[in-house]
Design goal:
The structure is a homodimer. By secondary structure, chain A is α/β, with parallel strands linked by helices. Chain A has 2 domains: about 180 residues, Dihydroxyacetone kinase, domain 1 (Rossmann fold, 3-Layer(aba) Sandwich), CATH 3.40.50; about 140 residues, Dihydroxyacetone kinase, domain 2 (Hypothetical Protein Tm841, Chain: A,domain 3, 2-Layer Sandwich), CATH 3.30.1180. The first copy, chain A, contains 8 helices and 12 strands. In chain A, the strands form 2 sheets. The first copy, chain A, has a 6-stranded mixed β-sheet, sandwiched between helices. Chain A has a 6-stranded mixed β-sheet with strand order 9-8-7-12-10-11, sandwiched between helices. In chain A, strand 10, helix 7 and strand 11 form a beta-alpha-beta unit. In chain A, helix 2 crosses helix 3, helix 4 packs antiparallel against helix 5 and helix 6 packs across helix 7. The first copy, chain A, is globular and about 55 Å long. Chain A starts with 10 loop residues before the first helix and ends in an 8-residue tail after the last helix. Chains A, B: Keywords: Kinase, Transferase. Chains A, B: Pfam families: Dak1. Chains A, B: Its EC number is 2.7.1.121.
């Protein structure tokens, strides 16, 4: 394993310190916690997210005005504990309640639900939006149902915009569930990630092999195959995504998300193929985003997310300015 | 070679198309060219940059209000041709001349100088700022003198701010030369990049080996050694950078730049070590930036850039808002 780290057992502490000291104008660490919070406080519903580390810039990179109030970091690929999540909730609450945006993994769901109970015992109203946008497989290594992946970033953005405009907790919960239903993601991996504490890749693909539908913790996908041209990958992923909608969307947003080890060059070539194919499908793309947003440490590969933008206000919400490290 | 591409000979065309179609609200392609220009035109000195591709998001990601007027893309690791640079100059000129920001590689210098001559024959005043921030080695595979690397992004930013505030061509040229003199970079590589047309890594490091001072095209550095903890790498790179200043700076900006294949987790751990060591040196850091800005395709490694911020207006210029894809 070749990584620029010190002791593997200290990576979360050091990374967290690196983030807050690099962007002191935007975020800070809540004392004695693994919570990164924004510096400003606004009278609005608090939005928090989090999960295992290793998906940087998610979620700390999306803390700031117009997106998340705070993010809570677990160990690598491991849910944060309920007490840490509760600290994030307490920090985010401005008297109007807190919405928890949680990727659908069994450990995360359990811990965020426990934190919700703790918060409610302390008089803070909370709701949970569970993101399960990965359409590759039903149930997985760490998940009942579908996994939550890169589409979570779009959920952060639209909810962040709505919360900033004064939406209340019940409205945000209902909106969040609708955004999740409209958001579908599927990925492809060329090479597995190496968790620092483990020291070797989580799975092995041969020199010419790729895997469709791999999860962001290296969970198995649905097919291994010989590496194909970008155009053919785009064709397969698009057809899977469109088939997952009950009704074929007319207008969508597209997110191409790099997994951490895939350069922008490939991501831009891939989205070029995606956009050309969507033109042929007569689907209008009114929002685009390309880059590393929900990574799997150093995995090589990418994911493709569609969001149905039938509700035009979502397009506007996706495009509004924010003050975060990484949006 | 495992890459998400189609035919290697089409990657520039397809990447360029992917960039402009993903960010149509910010940039467009100048017809029949390899020039990406911003959509707005302002009455100011034009700023252009460019060079070989493979360093994404540089330079197209820095085109927009407050930074570059246009970027011109060469083949992978190959200078753009003078006629293409001349198209960028013509496009960027608003009657007040155009400043060319060029990384110090022999091919780039030659071609940008020829384009400058062409532009002047067409009545456009031009100046060139040559960036040679890489202090690792004197002269290199493609360079006489020092190489131009990630510090170029900071030059774009401060000059972009000054041009937007109405600085004239002579002022920008003089300012640019001063910024370059204040900007020093040094890098370390864990694994070489693979150029798609070549199909294999540009050099080989053994399983535990790193190379100090590698260039962004895989040019040789100054020492190979066993992989060290992040803290020790930080110590070495800082001491080299500080030694390159005639006078030890009191206040600096710090850029940690990922080379394309190194995850943010490692970059944040590394900057955490850098910032702790600089505190011990009693050097104040008033600007920070972490991420993939000047990459070498999928190289694993990073570079560290310092900019002396004795002139406080530069700190302000680095922090002003811009409308670009990637700053």
């Amino acid at each position: 394993m070749k990584k620029i780290i010190n002791q593997p057992e200290n990576i979360i502490e050091e990374m967290l310190s690196g983030i807050v000291h690099s962007y002191p104008e935007l975020v800070h660490r809540v004392a004695d916690s693994r919570v990164i919070a924004k510096n400003t406080t606004n009278k609005q519903v608090g939005l928090i997210s989090g999960g295992g580390s290793g998906h940087e810039p998610a979620h700390a990179g999306f803390v700031g005005d117009g997106m998340l109030s705070a993010a809570v970091l677990g160990d690598v690929f491991t849910s944060p504990t309920p007490d840490q999540i509760e600290i994030a909730i307490e920090n985010a609450d401005q008297g109007q309640g807190v919405l928890l945006i949680v990727k659908n993994y069994t450990g995360d769901i359990l811990n965020f639900e426990m934190a919700k109970e703790l918060a409610e015992m302390n008089g803070i109203a909370t709701e949970i939006v569970v993101v399960d946008d990965d359409i590759a497989v039903e149930d997985s290594t760490y998940t009942a149902g579908k996994r939550g992946v890169a589409g979570t970033i779009l959920v952060h953005k639209i909810l962040g915009d709505a919360a900033g405009h004064g939406a209340n907790l019940a409205t945000l919960k209902e909106l969040g569930d609708r955004i999740v239903a409209a958001t579908k993601t599927i990925g492809v991996a060329l090479k597995a990630a190496t968790v620092p504490e483990v020291g070797k890749p989580g799975f092995t693909l041969s020199e010419n092999e790729i895997e469709f539908g791999v999860g962001i913790h290296g969970e198995p996908g649905y097919r291994r195959e010989k590496l194909q041209p970008s155009k053919d990958l785009a064709k397969e992923l698009i057809s899977k995504l469109l088939a997952a909608y009950e009704q074929k969307p007319k207008e969508i947003g597209v997110l191409v998300n790099g997994m951490g080890g895939t350069p922008l060059m490939e991501q831009f070539i891939f989205i070029n193929d995606v956009l050309q194919l969507l033109t042929k499908e007569a689907i209008h793309v009114s929002f685009h985003k390309v880059g590393n947003y929900m990574t799997s440490i150093d995995m090589q590969g990418l994911s493709l997310t569609f969001i149905d933008l039938a509700d035009h206000s979502w397009q506007k919400a996706l495009s509004s300015p924010v003050s975060t490290i990484s949006w």
